[in-house]
Amino acid sequence: MPHPLNRRNFLLKSISVGCLSIPVLSQLVGCKSSVQEQVQKKTYSDPKYELLDLALEHEFGVVVQYSNHNGVIAALGDDPDGVLASAIGDILCQEADHAAALTDILQRNGVQPTIAAWPPQQGATTAEMITKDVAAEEGAVKLYQQILAQDFDDNTRRTIEILLEHEQNHLQMFTDILAELS
Ligand SMILES: [Fe+2]
Ligand SMILES: [Fe+2]
């Protein structure tokens, strides 16, 4: 006697073809693992590594943000001499270096470095974008100051001090650019 047609029987019939079971199918399409990844919270042996991982997310976020702003500002025609593009490009390179440095520190300390990025911010005008860049740098300065309050070996501390110096310079540069736009 045939089974009544319902969702469960339909699924069991459909996925039994070719010897695939529900768990196998789930693994193949990645559904189960992606849910598990969202549910399982990343843990850290020390809160200072969580802060470094957050800083790494921030660095990735600004790399995307500044790349976007560089291109949009050029398209708006607000930077005919390429002065802004050059300044933002230099900052962008340093942010990428920061991300690599933080990845190195985390990996050496047994923490899988994140590849997530804090949400980059867009803007409709050059002034709006630079305002958001100032805010991003203010956030970076505060975060590295907080990180430096943690206990690190001398080399790591020196690296983070250099990153903080860069962020303070970036903050000043974007603040100056914004003042010139006003
Ligand atoms: Fe940075
Ligand atoms: Fe920065």
Care to describe what's here?
This protein has 182 residues and is mostly helical. It has two domains: 7-39, no CATH class; 47-181, Ferritin, core subunit, four-helix bundle (Ferritin). The protein is 74% helix and 0% strand. It contains seven helices and no strands. Helix 4 (47-76) packs antiparallel against helix 5 and helix 6 runs antiparallel to helix 7. The model is unreliable at 1-26 (pLDDT under 50). Bound molecules: fe (ii) ion (FE2) (2 copies). The site of one fe (ii) ion has 6 residues, from helix 5 and helix 7.
**Protein structure class:** mainly alpha
Shape-level CATH architecture of the largest domain: Up-down Bundle
Number of helices: 7
> Sheet with the most strands?
none
* CATH fold descriptor of the largest domain: Ferritin
Strand/helix succession: HHHHHHH
- Strand-residue fraction? under 5%
Shape: elongated
**What is the helix content?**
over 70%
According to CATH, the homologous superfamily of the largest domain is Ferritin, core subunit, four-helix bundle
Tell me the name of the CATH class of the largest domain. Answer: Mainly Alpha
The residue ranges in which pLDDT falls below 50 over 5 or more consecutive positions are 1-26
Cα-to-Cα separation, first versus last residue: 81 Å
What is the gist of this entry?
This protein is mainly alpha-helical and 182 residues long. The protein contains seven helices and no strands.
Element layout with pairings:
Blueprint: H1 7-16, H2 22-29, H3 31-39, H4 47-76, H5 83-108, H6 126-148, H7 154-181
One fe (ii) ion binds at residues 59, 95, 98, 140, 163, 167.
